[in-house]
TrEMBL record:
This is Uncharacterized protein. The keyword Coiled coil applies. It comes from Rossellomorea marisflavi. The chain crosses the membrane at residues 97-115, 121-139. Keywords: Coiled coil, Membrane, Transmembrane, Transmembrane helix. Residues 43-70 form a coiled coil.
Length: 150
């Protein structure tokens, strides 16, 4: 199944589901992912993931108007499998991914610096968060410039 076919299933599901379900499942993010996947070199795992995602949209559409927690859980599982593949193999990440990764790391190191050298944890937190955000923003800008974000 190709990206265009999956996108058609996504749009049909969005039309039938309404805004509440679209927000709950974060279908805008999925649309951005599909748009980005159209530009990637196709691989077998991408094709199988897209096929699985298309089938999931069909299944969810048949279950409307009431989706159960198990339906949402299974959809997220299929989507996360595809997201992990795209991240690991194609190095494509969501927007602000690196800020989310480096800010807590900076906070941790800042706390250690604050306690060890500055004898005041607050200064360390501020320093660490600032460094983490700076590194994360730089990497996010680089990945956006290289076209590796969705």
């Amino acid at each position: 199944m190709h990206v265009e076919e999956v996108r058609k299933h996504l749009h049909a599901f969005q039309d039938d589901a309404g805004q509440g379900v679209s927000r709950k499942l974060d279908l805008e993010k999925e649309e951005r992912l599909l748009n980005r996947m159209a530009d990637l070199e196709p691989c077998d795992e991408c094709e199988s993931g897209l096929m699985e995602l298309g089938e999931e949209y069909k299944r969810l559409r048949a279950r409307l108007p009431e989706l159960e927690k198990s339906d949402v859980r299974s959809h997220r599982k299929v989507l996360n499998k595809l997201l992990n593949h795209v991240h690991k193999v194609h190095k494509v990440v969501p927007q602000n991914y690196y800020i989310g990764v480096f800010m807590p790391l900076g906070l941790t190191f800042g706390m250690l610096i604050g306690l060890g050298f500055l004898e005041n944890m607050v200064y360390g937190f501020t320093l660490g968060i600032s460094i983490g955000i700076a590194i994360g923003a730089g990497l996010d800008a680089k990945s956006k410039k290289d076209g590796l974000t969705f």
